[in-house]
Structure formats: structure tokens, C-alpha cells
Amino acid sequence: MSGPDIDSGAERLHRLTKELIRRYQFRDWNQICCYGISISQSHILDVLAEEGDLTMQRLAKRMFKSVSTMTRVVAQLVRRGYVKRRQDPEDRRAVWISITPQGKAIVAAVNRDLVETQKAILRDIPSGEWAGAFKLLEALARGARRWQESCCKG
């Protein structure tokens, strides 16, 4: 697809995703911050809960942040007992990050709350349209991943 169709489609997609992202950012701020953690901290805990232990380098890459930024945010999570740091015994420069049981409990609680908001949103959409909406969101996520993998290597 090219020409005016893709131009107008891209503009409409931009407007719609911008509104959706803003609303979800507000939802995240409103629901996650009541647990005493930031959205960034919540995302880190979520990644560790899903993927298991990661090196600081890999975690920073996964979160699209610098290692120095990630080190600062992880230090806050260590102080609260939500994650642990340990040096790699074979490569002393590498630091591994793992989620603690307390961190897993926070992730579970946050996810329960966020799933409840998703239920409220789904109630306004006819159930016959869910499959199409999910398929479209999966395609958008794939497209965004492909774009990011090709544009932002480094």
C-alpha cells in the first residue's frame, strides 16, 4: 500500500493510538502508583516475572533504557525487597537481576487490577467483535516489533 491511502491511514492510526496510549498511561498511573511503585518499576517487575532472571545489560535492552538508568531504578526495587542483584560468578562485570516473592506478589496484584479494567473495557465491546480486535492488536504489535527491530539496532 502506498500513496494517499497509506498517508491517511497512517495519520488516522497515529491519532487513534495516541488517544489509546494516553488513556492507558493514565490508567496505569492511576492503578499502579497506589502500590507505591512507579510505572517503570512495574514494567521491570513484569518483565522479570515473565522472563526470569536477566542480566542488567539484557534488562536495560528489554526496557529500552540505558544501563545507568536501569541501575538506578533497579536499586530502588532492591531497597524495597522486590528484586535481588547478584554478580555472575564467571564474569564479574555481569550483574543478574531476579524477582523476589514480594516482587511477584506486587506483579500479581497489579495485574489483577489491570485485568479488571480490561473487563470493564470489554463490556462496552460486543463479544462478537473481540476476536477481530485481538487479531488487529496482535498485528499492530508485530508490526511495531518489526519496525523497532529494524530501526533501532544498537
Explain what the structure shows.
The chain is mainly alpha-helical. The protein has a domain at 36-123: Winged helix-like DNA-binding domain superfamily/Winged helix DNA-binding domain (Arc Repressor Mutant, subunit A), CATH 1.10.10. Helices cover 71% and strands 8% of the residues. The chain is built from six helices and three strands; from the N terminus they run ααβααββαα. It is globular.
Write the layout of secondary structure elements.
Blueprint: H1 4-32, H2 39-51, E1 54-55, H3 56-63, H4 67-80, E2 83-87, E3 95-99, H5 101-123, H6 130-151
Antiparallel strand pairs: 1-3, 2-3
Number of strands: 3
Distance between the termini: 29 Å
Average pLDDT across residues? 92
Q: Give the number of helices.
A: 6
The computed structural class is: mainly alpha
Shape: globular
Low-confidence stretches: none
CATH architecture of the domain at 36-123: Orthogonal Bundle
Strand order of the largest sheet: 1-3-2
Radius of gyration: 19 Å
Most strands sheet: 3 strands, antiparallel
CATH topology of the domain at 36-123: Arc Repressor Mutant, subunit A
List SSEs in N-to-C order: HHEHHEEHH
Helix % is: over 70%
Superfamily (CATH H level) name of the domain at 36-123: Winged helix-like DNA-binding domain superfamily/Winged helix DNA-binding domain
Looking at the chains present, what oligomeric state does this protein adopt?
Answer: single chain
So what's the CATH class of the domain at 36-123?
Answer: Mainly Alpha
The share of residues in extended strands comes to 5-15%
